[in-house]
Amino acid sequence: MVLATAAGTGAARAEGRPFLAYHASWYEVRTDDPALTTIARLPPYITHLALSFARPDLTYKGGLDLDGTGLQYPYSGTVLKGAIAALKVRVPQMKVLVSVGGWNYPAWDRFDAGALARLVKDLGADGVDMDYETHHPDCLRTRAGRIACPGDALSVRVVEEIRRALPRPYVVSVAGWSVGAYGEGAFANARPQGGYAGVTLALLRAPVAQEIDLVSIMSYDAGPAFRPDEAFRAYRVHWKGPLALGVQVLPGTSGGPRFTLDYTARTLARVMDDPLAGAMLYALRLEPEGVTSPDNPDYRSLAVAICVTLGLGDCTARMP
């Protein structure tokens, strides 16, 4: 019932809604045939596919050699390039991005935009997803009431360097921290508080934000007080383009709610009055422990729930 209602709400506004899905390279199937990869067989309702994760300090000199890039696909770069090409034949409108960063790759001070751009171009990808995460955000509110964080200038510089290396029409998307737009104005006291509150604000209000095409919110694993729809409204104050709420396959460790099918549909339905609202899924190929069910869904069923709630169409297309 929830999914049917949500689909009715969003179907008329489905055009322009983003659905970005991360692809966990470390769980991809092993094959030498590009057509047998899960990448080549993805359904058409995904709008952006983020290959996860490249290192900010990646080493890549060319030749489709993935060693040193951080990507953990169990096949060669040649097979990965072929998989992207096969996907593009089937779903030419889907944007394939190389996602750089993530929690395990925080070496942003050694970011190599040139190497990343060469990798994107050699793979035949469409751009970059920047997942800028820091283990020590240490954000504070100044006397003027604005949030300032030690990594503000670096996060802005990284996007500037990406855009210089990959000008439009290459796509640049940004993954924002759950509470990354909190700490100021109407959201000064939004919960939860802490050193991450406002960590994305400097980037969102920098001139280079005009060079960003999509923002997704890691709206999960932020504790029981966190409300994804409130985070969406906080981000919307600073970012007017396509904005995706994150959905997590594996349960978090912070005590926050589990993304069941019902919770996913209800959460997304709360922002469907915004015509550029969408969803992000973390991540394809991840599987929860135990028997899958509506209360313990896998990435396949969550992807369908997102598709139906956003009213994207072709939601019965098989997810590998």
Automatic annotation (TrEMBL):
SUPFAM superfamilies given in the database record: (Trans)glycosidases (SSF51445)
Annotated ranges, domain GH18: 21-222
Pfam short name (any one): Glyco_hydro_18
GO biological process: carbohydrate metabolic process
Transmembrane segments: none
Protein name per the record: GH18 domain-containing protein
Species the sequence originates in: Xanthobacter tagetidis
